[in-house]
TrEMBL record:
Family membership: Belongs to the FAD-dependent oxidoreductase family.
UniProt cofactor(s): FAD
Superkingdom to which the source organism belongs: Bacteria
Keyword annotations from UniProtKB, A to Z: FAD, Flavoprotein
Signal peptide: none
Residue ranges annotated for the FAD/NAD(P)-binding domain, each copy included: 1-279
Domain named NADH-rubredoxin oxidoreductase C-terminal: residues: 331-383
SUPFAM superfamilies, alphabetized: FAD/NAD(P)-binding domain
InterPro entries on file: FAD-bd_OxRdtase (IPR050260), FAD/NAD-bd_sf (IPR036188), FAD/NAD-binding_dom (IPR023753), FAD/NAD-linked_Rdtase_dimer_sf (IPR016156), Rubredoxin_C (IPR041575)
This protein's name: NAD(P)H-nitrite reductase large subunit
Amino acid sequence: MKYVLIGAGPAGVRAAETLRKEDPTGEITLVGGEPGEPYARMAIPYVLNRSIDETGALQRKTELHYDHQRIRYLNRKALKVHAREDGGTVDLDDGTVLDYDRLLVATGSSPSLPPIPGTDLPGVVTCWTLEDARAIAEKLKPGNRVVMVGAGFVAGVCMKSLVGTGVKLSVIAGRAGQILRTMMAPAGSSMMQRWLEERGVDVITKGRTERIEPGPRLVMDTQVIEADLIILATGVKPNVSFLEGTGARIDQGVVVDHFMRTTVPHVYAAGDVAQGRDFSTGEWVVHALQPTATEHGRIAALNMAGKHMPYRGSLSMNVLDIGGLISHTFGQWQGVEGGEMVEEVDEKNFLYTRLCFKNDRMVGAITIGNCNHVGAIRGLIQTRRHLGEWKEKLMHNPHKVMAAFVDLGQHKAVPETA
Ligand SMILES: Cc1cc2nc3c(=O)[nH]c(=O)nc-3n(C[C@H](O)[C@H](O)[C@H](O)COP(=O)(O)OP(=O)(O)OC[C@H]3O[C@@H](n4cnc5c(N)ncnc54)[C@H](O)[C@@H]3O)c2cc1C
């Protein structure tokens, strides 16, 4: 059996290793579109503030790991997939044509640049690749002025490496008017904003970014900011152009079924590029998170190797450390229709807890500053436990969540479909 995996991020690498275990004689080719050995983007914030070197970002650190696994690793870009009923071929950018019986698309996504002039000027970067990390690291000198355009998850994870380096950091929240809007309730966002401001970060929640001029200089309708570096973190788009003409269904990402199969015969998808099942809602979404990517990769590979393994869905969970203030966001933290929510805010001590319920089950949560309960919260959400009388107790005092978890732990977990 010939397996081709396009993309050597966490999804592709986990899939390749799983295939090797499941099919000891299969031919496995892993195609990664960036120079060097496969690395994890999650390590980029640590590379850019130099708390690890680039080898620390590699996904597998044992020398010749891929050779030992008999995984052929090619540093090339896939340009086009030609799919047939019984398999197909992939054209690479050096003219190589790879035959496949089973294909995995694990190409992740790329930053989508804001539609303004000047995004290609010197001193303007994204925060996505090791190359970006090198460019940013060079500019992290005390007194330098850094502007982060965008205030979502990737901007958030990079901020922890920028705060405390002595750079003057401005963060442009843009039209959202709120930082971390996709993972944080307004009360939590404003607490995190205040935390950043107390550490010298200029958080700009008003005004529209119009263009970037040489310098670089960020021109807004409200002000002009001179900078040494402008980092664009304004969203992403899935890497799918090579699938054009195959009939693959693309929505937010490549749409897959319960077995990570795309709509094209023998073609699977996994990771940030795939629109897979959400554990909490049962809907099909892109969860751009490393644990989701590796699990997608594993399940896709099992199915490619002939196992019939459904994917139960991933729990949306973001952990963020912005310069020492740590937040956790789980599941349906926005709340659900007909559900209930309790929120506790301790502004003075930067502590925030929000629990969301549907009937007597916890379906989502946010914590800021208090990490002690996150294991219990995650456990209660993932096992879909009936809380019984604990639900009311938690509505009155959300801090009792560990007590609830311990007490309820003696009872049996509820199956997913219940
Ligand atoms: C700065 C940063 C920090 C992050 N921090 C966290 C975190 O703390 N926690 C967390 O859970 N997640 C984090 N993430 C998200 C996490 O990195 C992604 O969810 C994860 O990398 C997805 O893995 P993937 O394998 O699907 O895609 P990717 O890791 O994006 O890998 C895609 C691979 O496909 C290759 N590729 C793309 N197009 C082609 C092509 N045409 N031909 C060949 N190869 C191609 C790329 O070169 C790459 O090898 C972070 C992301 C960034 C950018």
